[in-house]
Fold this sequence. Notes:
Blueprint lengths: L9 H4 L7 H10 L4 H10 L1 H8 L4 H16 L11 H18 L1 H5 L2 H17 L17 H4 L2 H13 L3
Helix pairs in contact: 3-4, 3-5, 4-6, 5-8, 6-8, 6-10, 8-10
Amino acid sequence: xxxxxxxxxxxxxxxxxxxxxxxxxxxxxxxxxxxxxxxxxxxxxxxxxxxxxxxxxxxxxxxxxxxxxxxxxxxxxxxxxxxxxxxxxxxxxxxxxxxxxxxxxxxxxxxxxxxxxxxxxxxxxxxxxxxxxxxxxxxxxxxxxxxxxxxxxxxxxxxxxxxxxx
Length: 166
């Protein structure tokens, strides 16, 4: 198994095509930065931060996905009042589901954080059930099933897709 903790080198990123704007943006935002350095980007631009992972080659994808999974599992998001949990949780589950169905090999090398992250996010949806009629309603923490769908369904798809290779 490849070491997914190794910082991605220029070679790991491959050759950048001027035609692939998504890959170009991923390189522009991520190249040369540690996962710790990317946390402010995840906090302030959650949707983009997760979306750019889709366009990365293997090692960079695994490196940054592992970092973001650790961010979630370590509950670092709780320190930030304005992080959009719906975008964080839904975005990460959607990314993991997409990769589990289309390129599970890339996830198998970081399965030690992928599976716990999927399970954690699915379980957290119940902990953050909020009514917008509550006095202390916080739209940044609203991850209701009626808005984002049932996270358990995505979790089950991820686990079942990966199960055949584990």
